[in-house]
Design brief:
The protein is an all-alpha fold. It is 81% helix and 0% strand. It has helices spanning 2-17, 19-43, 49-52, 62-84, 87-94, 97-108, 115-138. Helix 2 runs antiparallel to helix 4 and helix 2 crosses helix 6.
């Protein structure tokens, strides 16, 4: 039984360590970072108007610090991705954040997304599918 669970765990780690899930995970972490930074910036917008234009007041929010931790984690993940995937494929695929961030902003921050932006998101998804085809052959 322990042998089977260890094998299952090793499979989970292997899937998580493969480049495509890493790119998706990286995009999700970047999306979380951007949401945290937005929440932190909004929460501190009322602080000292003499400094608010600098953005430094955002550092007073724990949300901003969570966002910065997520950005650091995304950097580590991105370096792993670059070791294993050609940049000409990894970079365009990383732009899936341009789909994730508007969707997360819509869901969690209740921001409005116009019909034109929804159309753009659809076109971006189509473009990502085209870019992902060479990556699928590499995998």
């Amino acid at each position: 039984m322990a042998e089977q669970s260890r094998t299952a765990w090793q499979r989970i780690v292997a899937v998580g360590a493969s480049p495509l899930p890493q790119i998706v995970l990286n995009a999700l972490v970047v999306t979380a970072a951007e949401l945290f930074l937005k929440i932190g910036a909004s929460a501190t917008a009322h602080l000292d108007p003499r400094l608010s234009w600098t953005g430094l007041t955002g550092l007073a929010s724990l949300w901003t610090w969570f966002g910065m931790l997520c950005l650091a984690a995304s950097l580590v993940s991105w370096l792993y991705i670059l070791r294993n995937v050609p940049l000409s494929i990894a970079f365009p695929l990383s732009h899936v954040v341009h789909v994730f961030i508007p969707l997360a902003s819509w869901i969690f921050l209740h921001e409005f997304i116009s019909t034109t932006r929804w159309l753009g998101i659809g076109l971006l998804i189509a473009g990502l599918l085209i870019v992902a085809q060479p990556f699928a052959r590499i995998e």
